[in-house]
């Protein structure tokens, strides 16, 4: 599976000179900062810092840019835990249980859980990439629209489980998100409503909407309190407690490994990536848990599942880039630009002819993961201080940052106005116990779903079910999904019946 | 009977109904091909069904409950929400710096800070940090009046 000569050459490239590592720590710091500020995207950070990689050699440039990627994946989780503001769509599920933990004064433990799960998840993702780059590349090539439909459907099933008070409320929130995703030009070029606003031609901007519905509406609710953590004695930032939280992660090996595997697999599918991976992983952790009722109220399993999946999806997303030369998302598109600056073309010939470089990129990323544990731990002391800021100052300041973040995404007034509109909607939903996360999931996956469904209909000649039977990967994924969705509750019901009988 | 139906719940359900109906009407008017309605049509149908269930449930609960829902803090939330919407709109009118300074100052005062000098000082420092730090990372031009 591993070319041993190339592997030893890769080790030689990485460890005989300090130069490749010189930019890794700055890269991780940049990623952590960009990831933790809503509105500053990881891909934006990579694009902003791309020009400074001109003067670097290829390996150095790749390690610097992937360090931003790695740091950003964790940074998004920090604000999700501390303030219920996912830094990016890949951290949505982290907020579900991380934030309730923080509100209970367990912010140190939640940050530790998130950091350890991110480190292990990214490590597993890259080790899998190292071992399975060839078969994974073959798998990616076989992925078509119908397989994507199944994966997106899997992500959407989470909507049904996000019901704070009743199932109809959870469902209608998700379906509201889905129908809102249909504003603007359709994937086939048909112009649907834009309410006369040209900014809505491409639909509602998802990230500003997410910032508004999650963050701004939550901040309005917090307004009447004094601090994020009410108990003064629990407002400290304790490395000891963070480490305790980190150690706690390893007491949930099943959730950790399953989350990492789900993340690596879904991350490898171009265009889907970490935003779906964290949702699917969270949903699976909840479905298979012995205490599903604890989810959404501060369950460590929820944080582990979400963070391990979004971090391991980074390794998965590198599969398509390295093995096929196609970017799976915005961040890997910037990496592809770095490839072209250095006259390198990703794909089968890159793997065949420059195996040692491919291995050194992967091994360098495994090294970065270890550094992330150290840098993340040090940065958490600073980022965690947010719990000591009085809410009277924190709420207006973060609200202002939310509006700025909206502008940072769109570059027009449409961003801040979307944040404001969705803040109002989120506030109304929270007032009446509707799960805002379900609406975000619908909005995030609706457009993806429509595009893949239309392509499936076109390819299948209007017979998607017959086509499904001809696609073994889609069929297997579909059967697994049905088994997972129907099997877990069925087993639980059977177990209960047996218990009652005895 | 409807007097006990919480106003915020009625507003939310009304919003969901209006938005779903408008998007569905717009999509059907644009084209009634399967490709255009593949998501809109089934989603709109499910929303209509769920709305009936939720309205019936809400009316039943309103009849069963003798207490009116807690509305404390509602007006404060609405005031801050309106201020936030105004601030978002003013960013490109007043400038990012002036709008941010005024909003953060007003927001702190509205949240109960008694000190007269702390809110404007904090707001000024925070605005400088945003404009010079956060704003410098934006790849877009940003209107400012003072900074």
Write the layout of secondary structure elements.
The complex is a heterodimer of chains A (about 500) and B (about 150).
Chain A: H1 4-15, H2 24-36, H3 42-49, H4 58-83, H5 92-103, H6 107-141, H7 145-156, H8 158-161, H9 167-180, H10 206-222, H11 239-249, H12 253-267, H13 273-288, H14 300-324, H15 330-341, H16 348-353, H17 355-383, H18 391-410, H19 414-431, H20 436-459, H21 464-470, H22 472-501
Chain B: H1 7-30, H2 34-37, H3 40-64, H4 74-94, H5 96-110, H6 118-134
Helix pairs in contact in B: 1-3, 4-5, 5-6
Summarize the structure.
The complex is a heterodimer of chains A (502) and B (147). By secondary structure, chain A is mostly helical.
Reading the helices and strands of chain B in chain order gives HHHHHH
Which structural category fits the helices and strands of chain B? Answer: mainly alpha
Rg from Cα of chain B = 23 Å
Tell me, what's the shape of chain A? globular
The biggest sheet of chain A, with number of strands, parallel, antiparallel or mixed sense and barrel status, is: none
**Number of helix segments of chain B?**
6
Basic shape of chain B:
flat
Can you walk through the features of this model?
The complex is a heterodimer of chains A (502) and B (147). Chain A contains 22 helices and no strands. By secondary structure, chain A is mainly alpha-helical. Chain A folds into two domains: 4-470, no CATH class; 471-502. The longest helix of chain A has 35 residues, at 107-141. The model of chain A has no long low-confidence stretch (mean pLDDT 84). Chain B has two domains: 2-64; 74-137, no CATH class. The termini of chain B are far apart. Chains A and B meet through helix 3, helix 9, helix 10, helix 18 and helix 19 of A and helix 1, helix 2, helix 3, helix 4 and helix 5 of B.
